[in-house]
Design goal:
- The structure is a homodimer.
- By secondary structure, chain A is α/β, with parallel strands linked by helices.
- Chain A is globular and about 45 Å long.
- The first copy, chain A, is built from 9 helices and 8 strands.
Chain lengths: 223, 223
Amino acid sequence: MLPLALYIEHTLLKPDATFDDISKHCLQANEFKFIGVCINPSWLELAHKILIPEIKRVTVIGFPLGATSSEAKAAETKWCVEAGADEIDMVLSIGQFKSNLFSYVREDIKAVVQAAKNKPVKVIIETGLLTKTEIATASGLVIESGAQYVKTCTGFSPGQATPEDIALIRHTVGAKALIKASGGIRTPEAALALIQAGANRLGTSQGPALCAGQKVGPAGAGY
Amino acid sequence: MLPLALYIEHTLLKPDATFDDISKHCLQANEFKFIGVCINPSWLELAHKILIPEIKRVTVIGFPLGATSSEAKAAETKWCVEAGADEIDMVLSIGQFKSNLFSYVREDIKAVVQAAKNKPVKVIIETGLLTKTEIATASGLVIESGAQYVKTCTGFSPGQATPEDIALIRHTVGAKALIKASGGIRTPEAALALIQAGANRLGTSQGPALCAGQKVGPAGAGY
């Protein structure tokens, strides 16, 4: 069996997560040796203090709507990198993408990639709001713009990671990008199916249960 | 009957709203002469071009989770004011508030108030995630921090504006703040009840129907 923990970004993005919730979440990541922890920017400094060095500090930008200005996303990214972020998960400018304003979308991603300096950037394309053709087009824009990962879902809009979408993204990006599957990962079998379809990372709040081989119930907002 | 349009901020915050959607939305605001339009930052420049001068350009900061850094919220605010925003609707640092980190919460609001220069700031306290006691405490922090409005809901978390919560907020803030009710306003009667309870503004995507005296169905995310 695959060592699932090496794929899992232990995720807690609920707006009402407290100091204690975040602290426990990070201690749990230390215990399970997850590849990373994914949290909101305002908790980055706390997480940085608690996490052991080998766990990646992942945070989110323009989250979860992707609808703020590119300048705001870049400023947010700059602050996060200074606060200790190792990886940056930004949300695509979904509305501009749907309006075929592809030049805007590319510049938006590039602004974050530049602000992230050499830290990997993942672009959440929000598959649940896109058609299959749009998923392929958006994935192409992500690699053209210099980001390292295509990521599926925020967990705050409809839709979840499916092996079919992961395979479609992998078919589109080939070896030019990595893929993070996120949203609705409920069983170890589902997690393995996403990895087999091409996912390099799994974003989930259910890492401990998944590693223990348990099926978990439906999650609330924030996967 | 009250002229409802003078209370309504015509709201469109869905992540997949397109150029055409935003354009139509602003033209509709011109037609109905709503007090304002509330849109995401990335569409502010477009809205600014379409809207007639007397309609307020309202935008959202740290939206809808409120969980980014204060520095990011301030940078986002600064950009929005330069892009033509007349009013700034920020989201409270809900997690820090729930952790009793009140000094953090105050400084977070103050950072946005300062970046907004003399533009009014509304603080969305997300009533659906708070107890009644927390609603009163949060409202107090908003006025202590120099913001002009307490606003109820983002529309992206559970909860909606109720006359009971508006009355509680009004009881707490007295004449020291204005109140924006937002989330789940479905009928003209509900709108009037919120105004009678103390609301100075109504945030809704259903303004045209409400002004026409129609009851509207349940909205999707983004009220």
